[in-house]
Structure formats: structure tokens, C-alpha cells
Design a protein that fits this description.
Layout (H helix, E strand, L loop, with lengths): L2 E6 L4 H11 L7 E8 L2 E8 L2 H10 L6 E7 L14 E2 L5 E7 L4 H10 L10 H15 L2 H11 L4 E7 L6 E6 L6 E4 L4 E4 L11 E4 L4 E5 L4 E5 L4 E2 L4 E2 L15 H7 L1 H7 L5 E2 L4 E2 L8 H6 L2 E6 L1 H18 L3 E5 H4 L10 E7 L5 H12 L3 E6 L5 H4 L3 E4 L12 H21 L4 H12 L1 H9 L2 H11 L4 E6 L4 H15 L2 E6 L17 E5 L5 H13 L4 E6 L5 H4 L2 E5 L7 H19 L18
Parallel strand pairs: 18-19, 18-20, 20-21, 21-22, 23-24, 23-25, 25-26, 26-27
Antiparallel strand pairs: 1-4, 1-10, 2-3, 2-4, 5-6, 6-7, 7-8, 8-12, 9-10, 9-11, 11-15, 12-13, 13-14, 16-17
Helix pairs in contact: 3-4, 4-5, 7-15, 9-13, 9-17, 13-14, 15-20, 16-20, 17-20
The protein binds fructose -6-phosphate.
């Protein structure tokens, strides 16, 4: 979690860093700070709360200089207050650090440093890092050497940037493990460092990503990368095709609302370059897959967290239906602890918007260790989950800033659909006619999404009616069962209303006891193979005095007579229906949260990328 930005060049670093931090506020917003080298002295400004508070502090106590570092925090060790805010200074005030990650051996390092007379001013684990650097600097008089030695002492995963008034012409940055990325961007006579691209893409698109175990010394003119043993490395630089405008809110009230509406475009963007229209085939060259190899797969594990996991659950039904390869969907945080049965004919497929989620990366490592073919469906270009896979499907939906994931839920469903068609084609489990029909259906998705969004006004009115509820049940069945989980997750994370998603058939095994006039039940009941069963769910809830909100297919004349509210979706083929049924649920959660006056884009306690276990 946490966001890092740093600058070295000829301009005033402070506004560049603060603007960069604003773009990263989605990563954490418990506190924020900057440190700038002003007249060869390190000046720190930091405060609890959001970046607006830091801006006010800087306005009251301006600071300027041409080298600086900044941080926006999601608290792990220590409360979100001013003392714990980054940057953290060494005791002599000559070295300063911003850090992303957790020092797993921080208690023993702290004891060691205390015994040597260090005085700690915060409850953070980061302070141990800066004191270690200070200690090694006293011996080596070389900042990169001191950082190198320190990185060898700290356990856990880290990304950090260090600045020293003794070496004002450079910044040192390093990465260990998967605590978020370190991206170095080259400008003309200036260099940028950030944990995430939105912070710096408006300045540069020439980006180098540090790998784990690498350190870079960054000056105005360029940078050098080395291992933690000091061996020089020739880094790869990529041009990032990213539109900075898509990281702005535009005319929408919130990023979440913008991203919900963007789905019309993102659902087609994710198909770009993947459909061959001459013979209606899916092409996924980045999977590096031959038809012989595709025929050898015996099992697919899909692993992910949260919303990405729910996309994987939808994918399971699509892949199994079309390819008949057994698919297991597993919470990434459990994958490495349950000794999954993985061999050389198993695919481990990770899904992640950020490509940085610590548990998802750990699940990928477990898959690698057991000899699986490793694939990922990832949004963040250049992220670890993209780099460490044997094959990747990039979501291609642009930055997702709202903490509640929306367009990065529906795009991977399209990607999984394309993957299923691709595998089925290579394995010969579908006919050419079936393949063409499947692709024709898929191409309808953006238009159908647009039709679904036309009903936003009705969803907003339904939200007004239910905004004061305390709890809610979401029910789905078959391919729409994961949409019940996803709808409930959206509601709880941004409105703080308790909600549970359930497979509809499970109601009678317990949850139905909860149903009364105060517990609305949201039933996902499009016209599909499970429609009649969902109607009986509605009847059962109504018979117990429950209020029912139904997601139903346009033209349905039965459901409006049975329920209290209807959220409409257009008629659609069943394999793509979850993409559409999820949209009213995103809007429902969004409008409830905004009507409650809550901070939709930055809900409490959450961060966009969860880079700790
Ligand atoms: C919910 C949400 C989270 C993420 C989860 C995985 O709206 O955003 O549940 O889906 O933390 O994140 P990624 O996809 O970045 O691995």
C-alpha cells in the first residue's frame, strides 16, 4: 500500500511531488508528507489525514528545492498520526526516507538500535530502516552502499527512496520483494521515481521498473541500476502508452462513477487486438501457447483476491463450459497454505488489477514452485504479476483510481471469455460455428453495457429508498452467483452497510432466518436457465415479509408484480450476462454511498493495492 513519489531535476520538486501524491492518494490516505532539499538542508513537511492537509501545511510553511521525496500512507505499524507519517529522518537529520512495505524483523532491529542508543520518535517500522542507513553511512560515507547493506538486514518486502543532504546530487531507490513497484521515469535533465505510474505519466512515459533485489542511484542526468551486491545491471526501459487524461475525474463526481460509465469503452478496449475479424477467432499471442500445449492442460487454478476473485468465479463457469478443463478458483491468500495439487499440466492463472497484491503474487510464486504454467490477467502495465507470468492478458482499461473496483471487474470477465474461446478452439472442444456465435455475442457487450447504464436514474431512486438499511442479502445462481458476492462486496466497502452474497439455493439452509421487513433481499434473476428457481426465491422472501429488489431482464412482466424494486438489464446471452447484471449493483452501491455522504473513492480502512499479507 502507500504511495511514493520522488523528483530530481531543475524544477521546484515540491509541487511535482505533491501533485504526484494526489494521483496516488487511492493507495493510502492516512497521512502524507514530503522532504525537500532546501539550501542543502532536509526540510520535512508531513501531517495526518489526506493530502489536502499537507498542501495547507506547505502553504503555511513553504519549502522549495530541486530534489525531494514524498509519501502517502496506509498505516500498518503505528496509528495514522503526524509522528508516524513519512518521510522519516535519521537522527542527525542528514538522511531521509519514504518507504512502502513492512519490516518483518523490525522488533529485533529496533532492540539492536535501541541498545546502540537510537531514539525512536514514531511507532513505525520504517524508522529502523533510516537508522540502519545512518549507521552504515557513518562507516561507508556512501549512500548507495549504506542502502545496500541495510536492504540485506531487513526482512519482508520493500520499496523505498532515500535522500541525503551529504549527497545532494542523487536519490537512491531500492526494491525487495513485492511491496509495490519502483518505477523510474526519465525526463530531459530530470528524473522521477514513483511506486505507481499515475504519479509520473504526465511528465514521462520512458519507464524502467526495478526488480526485487535491485537498487538504483538516480541523478538529474540518468540512473544506474545494481544488485544488492553491487553488480551493475543493464536495465530495460519501456515506453508506456498511457493516456494521463484517463487518470482525471473529468465531469464525474467521483472516479468510481466515471469508471462505472467507462465500462462501455473499457469492455471494448480489452478486446482490442484479440479478435481476428477475418475468421472470427480469438488471438492471444502474449500467452505464447501452441495447440499441442493447450491440449495437455488438465486443470486450471484461478487465484485472486476480492473483486478479482469474483471475476475468476464467473470465468470458471465460462472456461469449464467451453473447454471442459476443470477449473478451481482459490482465494490467493490461502493458495500457498493448502498444498494445492499442481503439476506441469496445470495452469495457475492470477487475476489482479494492480498486479501487486501481495497474496496474489505469493500464489503465483507457489504455482511457479510447483511447476505450473503461470498466466496472469492484469491491468497495471509493467507490474510484477505481469512480468513474472509466462503469459499475460493485459486488461487494457487504463488506470482504475476508485478504490472500489468496477471496470477492472468486468474487463477480466471478457478476458476470461476470450481465453475460454481461445483454449476451446485450440483444443477442438467447440465447432467453428459455435466459435463464431460466441464471438458475435461478445461483441455485443459494450452496447449492452451502455443500455444498462441508461437505467442509472432508476437505480439512483432505488438507492434513495434503501439507503438507511442496516443489512442486506444478495442472491444469485449459476453464472450469476458470483455477482451476488460482488454486489454485496461493493455495498459494504463503500457504504459500510453489512451485506452478504449467497448462492440462492443456500437460503433455506440458514440465511432465510434473517429475512424480515428490515432485511431487503436483492435477487439477481435475469431470464436464464435458473430464472424459475430465482422466482421461487423471490416468493420465499416475500412470504416472510422481506422486501425484494430484483435485477431482471427488460421485458419481464412477471417480476415487477412480485417485487418492491426492479433494476433492469437488457436481454443477453447467458455467458455474458454477469457483465451486465453487475452494473446496476455497482450503481446501487455507488448511489447509496453518495446519498449517505460518504467518501466513495477513498472508503475508510481500505487501499487500492494491498501489498502486505
Ligand atoms: C474491491 C477491490 C478489492 C480488490 C482486491 C484485489 O472493490 O477492489 O477487493 O479487488 O484487493 O486487488 P487487485 O485486483 O489489485 O489484485
Amino acid at each position: 500500500m502507500c504511495g511514493i513519489v520522488a523528483y530530481i531535476g531543475e524544477q521546484n520538486a515540491t509541487p511535482i511531488i505533491v501533485n504526484g501524491l494526489k494521483k496516488l492518494e487511492y493507495r493510502g490516505y492516512d497521512s502524507a508528507g514530503v522532504a525537500v532539499l532546501q539550501d542543502n538542508r532536509i526540510e520535512v513537511r508531513r501531517d495526518a489525514g489526506k493530502i489536502a492537509r499537507l498542501e495547507a501545511l506547505i502553504a503555511a510553511q513553504p519549502v522549495r528545492g530541486m530534489v525531494g521525496i514524498g509519501h502517502t500512507r496506509w498505516a500498518t505499524h503505528g496509528a495514522p498520526n503526524q509522528q508516524n507519517a513519512h518521510p522519516h529522518l535519521s537522527s542527525n537529520g542528514e538522511i531521509v526516507i519514504v518507504h512502502n512495505g513492512i519490516v518483518e524483523n523490525y522488533l529485533s532491529l529496533r532492540d539492536e538500535l535501541l541498545a546502540e542508543g537510537a531514539v525512536f520518535h514514531s511507532e513505525t517500522d520504517t524508522e529502523t530502516i533510516v537508522y540502519l542507513i545512518e549507521r552504515y553511512y557513518a562507516v561507508s560515507q556512501n549512500l548507495s552502499k549504506a542502502v545496500q547493506l541495510t536492504m540485506k538486514r531487513v526482512k519482508g518486502a520493500h520499496g523505498l527512496v532515500v535522500m541525503s543532504s551529504r549527497e545532494p546530487d542523487r536519490l537512491v531507490t531500492a526494491r525487495l520483494g513485492n511491496a509495490g513497484g519502483v518505477a523510474i521515469g526519465r525526463g530531459a535533465g530530470e528524473m522521477f521515481i514513483a511506486s505507481d505510474l499515475p504519479a509520473i505519466v504526465e511528465h514521462t512515459r520512458e519507464i524502467t521498473f526495478l526488480e526485487s533485489g535491485q537498487l538504483a542511484v538516480v541523478s538529474r542526468a540518468g540512473f544506474e541500476v545494481q544488485t544488492l551486491d553491487g553488480a551493475k545491471i543493464q536495465p530495460k526501459t519501456q515506453h508506456i502508452p498511457w493516456d494521463p487524461v484517463s487518470a482525471e475525474k473529468g465531469s464525474y463526481r467521483h472516479f468510481m462513477q466515471k469508471e462505472i460509465h467507462e465500462q462501455v469503452r473499457s469492455l471494448s478496449d480489452t478486446m482490442i487486438g484479440r479478435i481476428d475479424f477475418d475468421d472470427y477467432r480469438v488471438v492471444l499471442p502474449d500467452l505464447n501457447l501452441s495447440s499441442e500445449r493447450a491440449k495437455q492442460f488438465r486443470r486450471i487454478f484461478i487465484t485472486a483476491c476480492g473483486t478479482a476473485l469474483h471475476a475468476g468465479m464467473v470465468g470458471k463457469t465460462i472456461i469449464e463450459h467451453l473447454t471442459r478443463i476443470p477449473v478451481e478458483v482459490m482465494v490467493a491468500s490461502e493458495f500457498r497454505y493448502i498444498d494445492p495439487i499442481v503439476d506441469a499440466n496445470t495452469v495457475v492463472l492470477a487475476i489482479s488489477q494492480s498486479g501487486e497484491t501481495a497474496d496474489t503474487l505469493a500464489a503465483m510464486e507457489e504455482g511457479r514452485r510447483k511447476g505450473a504454467t503461470l498466466w496472469s490477467i492484469v491491468n497495471a502495465i509493467g507490474s510484477q504479476a505481469m512480468r513474472s507470468a509466462d503469459g499475460t492478458i493485459a486488461m487494457q482499461v487504463g488506470p482504475e483510481i476508485g478504490v472500489a473496483s468496477t471496470k477492472a471487474f468486468t474487463a477480466p470477465i471478457v478476458d476470461l471469455y476470450m481465453l475460454a474461446v481461445y483454449l476451446a478452439d485450440l483444443r477442438g472442444s467447440i465447432t467453428a460455428e459455435k466459435r463464431i456465435d460466441l464471438i458475435r455475442d461478445l461483441l455485443k457487450v459494450p452496447t449492452l453495457a451502455s443500455k444498462t447504464l441508461e437505467h442509472e436514474g432508476e437505480v439512483e431512486r432505488a438507492a434513495a429508498r434503501y439507503k438507511d438499511i442496516r443489512s442486506m442479502l444478495y442472491l444469485g445462481r449459476g453464472i450469476n452467483m458470483p455477482i451476488a458476492y460482488e454486489g454485496a462486496l461493493k455495498l459494504k466497502e463503500i457504504s459500510y452497510i453489512h451485506a452478504e452474497g449467497y448462492p440462492a439455493g443456500e437460503m433455506k439452509h440458514g440465511p432465510i432466518a434473517l429475512v424480515d421487513k428490515d432485511l431487503p433481499v436483492l435477487v439477481i434473476a435475469p431470464k436464464d436457465a435458473w430464472y424459475e428457481k430465482m422466482i421461487s426465491q423471490i416468493e420465499q422472501a416475500k412470504a416472510r415479509g422481506g422486501q425484494v429488489i430484483a435485477v431482471a431482464t427488460a421485458g419481464d412482466t412477471l417480476i415487477p408484480d412480485l417485487v418492491d424494486e426492479v433494476l433492469w438489464v437488457p436481454e443477453a446471452p447467458w455467458l455474458i450476462s454477469p457483465i451486465l447484471t453487475t452494473i446496476p449493483l455497482q450503481l446501487f452501491a455507488y448511489h447509496i454511498a453518495t446519498q449517505l455522504g460518504l467518501d466513495v473513492d477513498q472508503p475508510r480502512n481500505l487501499a487500492k493495492s494491498v501489498t502486505v499479507e
